[in-house]
């Protein structure tokens, strides 16, 4: 099973060293090597289990929307994140060995600028299903506003169209984006929209108020699996 400390291992690896003076971890039976962690990520994603887990999440979205319609909820809507919900960062992260150093981040940023992140297929299916039911979808990203054109081109190239809004990080959230998603949701709620589901890839995406049903996609780096 993946565990959260995998990310810590990656960060140490990205820095190019692991301190030999570090205190011994008491729960050493939980530790796995960095190569083993990478292999587990590859196995999880490429075995098809990642896709199956994503499909399970999209079924949950459908269930939530069907219930909202049956319950007569007025102006229901769904919020979906961009990266690792609508499009995937897996291929570029794989090339960088799932590291989080400056080189890896620049490679990911470059892919975003080029608008070449590939579609997550179950997501585009549920996206189209929502629109066919008359459910507006609002898209949100941690990326800054100056990448709007690139993200629009990426979404269109991946097969997405017809969303009701795309919210990108404004300058006042550049240093800390943790409250941005909640701020957007509250703003939509004030207009009379009832958010019945918020779909994200990391916990902060679905934290806070006005989430409706929070739905967290599987994430091969941060997952508890």
Oligomeric state of the chains?
single chain
CATH architecture of the largest domain: 3-Layer(aba) Sandwich
- Give the C-alpha Rg: 18 Å
Total individual domains: 2
Described by strand count, sense and barrel closure, the largest sheet is: 5 strands, parallel
Number of strands: 5
CATH level-1 class of the largest domain: Alpha Beta
Strand content: 5-15%
Distance between the termini: 4 Å
- Anisotropy-based shape: globular
> Strand order of the main beta sheet, please?
3-2-1-4-5
Helix and strand succession? HHHEHHHEHEHEE
Looking at CATH, the homologous superfamily of the largest domain is HAD superfamily/HAD-like
By CATH, the topology of the largest domain is Rossmann fold
Mean pLDDT metric: 85
| Count of separate DSSP helical elements | 8
Signal peptide: 1-22
Keywords: Signal
InterPro entries: Acid_phosphat_B-like (IPR005519), HAD_sf (IPR023214)
Pfam families: Acid_phosphat_B
